[in-house]
Amino acid sequence: MGPLLNGQDYNQLRAFIVVAEQLSFSRAADQLGVSPSALSQMVRNLEDHLGMRLLHRTTRNVSLTEVGENLFQRARIAALDLGGAVAQVKQAGEKPAGTVRVHTFRSAAHKHIDPILKDFTDRYPEIVLDITLDDEVIDIVAARYDVALRIGEVIEKDMVGVRLGPELRQIAVAAPDYLKLHGQPRHPRDLVNHRCIRWRWPGRATPYAWEFFENEAWFSVTVDGPLIFSDKESALSATLKGIGIGFPVEDTVADHIAAGRLVPLLQSWSAPFPGLFICYPQQRQMSPALRAFIDALRTGVS
Taking the CB of residue 89, how many other CB atoms lie within 10 A of it? Predict the structure, then answer.
């Protein structure tokens, strides 16, 4: 049996895990019920105790160092095992059942929900998953959803957000045929001279501003072009046809880039941002059905 953590070590490690999941001191502090300054000090104390830096901190972003990522992955698994053991004891004899209403955008569902559905429904035959695929950011409490999958930047402060995947990047991409006709932009501001495939949040009147990173600061470029979509898959389809330059999340087009159907552009100005999170309202007691679904998303069903 390995060494047991004392109370202070456990609290510092738990604070680090939540910050690493949220990639935000303010959201992590809300979840833990402490002030951001107190939380920051707990993480610094852990770094001092280990003699290693675990986090990169800027005014806008929090990211993990390589050492921090290694510790997070191992500590998170251990914490999930411990939490699962406690939850199993508490819920002994209480069978997960009922309906879990889920709100998510399509690409998140395809990547994270589709792979677990068969095993999940086999293991929990008394649970019904009512899944809505929609790119619009809504008030999930008012709309009576139990859980949502969202990008970390659009999580309300009164919600619990648990990191589901790594940081993401948006990158400019174009089909080779488009670049043969129009050439490549050399700087993000050159995009104003190109045909761009724009996207807007459903329910919003104006298209999404394309954001880039330079000299430790974010800046936006207002692009123009012949098409505006409220659906990201349609925007990607138009980009693949060579109609213009698109601005998708990198991992959604990785296969197209590898196959040569799309060419990545302006990567030096594309910085990571908080990735995908499981988002749900704060509640004193979570239903066994919702807990089972969240655990399945985080760790897999089996």
Answer: 8
Any idea which residue has 């008394």 for tokens?
A: 126
Q: What would the pLDDT profile of 136-168 be if each residue is shown by its tens digit?
A: 777 888 889 999 998 876 666 677 888 888 888
Torsion of CA 84, 148, 156, 61, to 10 degrees: 70
Both tokens assigned to 135: 């790119």
**pLDDT tens digits, 72-97:** 988 888 877 776 666 666 655 568 89
Q: Is 157 exposed, middle or buried (0-12, 13-18, 19+ CB in 10 A)?
A: exposed
- What is the CA 72 to chain-centroid distance, rounded? 16
- For strands 55-57 and 62-64, give the pairing: antiparallel
CA distance 231 to 200: 8
pTM above 0.70, yes or no: no
CA 249 from chain centre, in angstroms, equals 11
